[in-house]
Design brief:
about 200 residues; Rossmann fold; 2 domains; five-stranded parallel β-sheet; four-stranded antiparallel β-sheet; 8 helices
C-alpha cells in the first residue's frame, strides 16, 4: 500500500484529503507543522508528499528545499492559494514535482497523485536500508543497529544519522546540519550539533 504524508495546517482540508485518498486505497498520514513534517520525512519513507505552502514553523517551500538538500527524493505536490507564475516557479525550483493551486478539484488531485506514484522515484527504494561500517539504519521500520544490536535514538538523533548516511563521504557544515535537522530556529544553539555528534 502506498504511503502518503499530507502536510496541511487547515484541519478540515487535511481530513478531507485524507478521506479521499484513503478511499482510493492509499495509507495516509497527516502533519500540520512544517518542522515536524521535515523530521518525519527524513526519518521515514513515503511514496508521496502533499505539502501546503503556508505552514507553521517551516513553510512548504522550505520543507521541500531541505528534503532535496538532504537528497530525499520523495515526490512532492505543492498546494497553495498562491497561483502567480512566480509562485509556481519558486515552488518547482525548490524541488516540488507538481503544483496545484487552491481551490482544486479532487479528481485533479487524484490524477496528479496517480501520475507521481507510478513513477519510480528512487533506485534505493527496494533496498532502503542505509549503512556505514557496522551501523545500519532502516528508515521504514525506524530501527538503527550497531554491530547487530538495536540502538535506541531520539527523533533528532535518528534524523541526524539518516541525513549523514544518505550522503556518505560528504562533509556537512554545522549550519547545514542545524538547518536540516533542527530548522535553525532561534532557540537552538549552534553547538547543539557538537553535542549530538
Amino acid at each position: 500500500m502506498m504511503r502518503i504524508l499530507v502536510v496541511e495546517d487547515e484541519e478540515k482540508l487535511a481530513r478531507l484529503i485524507s478521506r479521499v485518498l484513503g478511499e482510493e486505497g492509499y495509507a495516509v498520514e497527516t502533519e500540520a507543522n512544517g518542522r515536524q513534517a521535515l523530521m518525519r520525512a527524513l526519518a521515514d519513507e513515503y511514496d508521496l508528499l502533499i505539502v501546503d505552502w503556508m505552514l507553521p514553523e517551516l513553510s512548504g517551500v522550505q520543507l521541500v528545499k531541505r528534503l532535496r538538500a538532504a537528497e530525499v527524493g520523495t515526490p512532492a505536490i505543492m498546494l497553495t492559494a498562491r497561483d502567480q507564475i512566480e509562485d509556481r516557479v519558486e515552488g518547482l525550483d525548490a524541488g516540488a514535482d507538481d503544483y496545484l493551486p487552491k481551490p482544486f478539484a479532487f479528481p485533479e488531485l487524484l490524477a496528479r497523485v496517480r501520475a507521481l506514484t507510478r513513477r519510480p522515484w528512487s533506485e534505493e527504494k527496494d533496498g532502503a536500508i542505509l549503512g556505514a561500517g557496522d551501523v545500519t539504519l532502516d528508515p521504514v521500520r525506524h530501527v538503527v543497529r550497531h554491530g547487530g544490536e538495536t540502538v535506541d535514538l531520539t527523533v533528532k538523533e535518528f534524523a541526524l544519522l539518516a541525513t549523514l548516511l544518505q550522503r556518505p563521504g560528504q562533509v556537512f557544515t554545522r549550519p547545514v546540519l542545524l538547518d536540516t535537522v533542527w530548522g535553525a530556529s532561534p532557540e537552538v544553539y549552534a553547538n547543539v550539533v557538537d553535542l549530538y555528534v
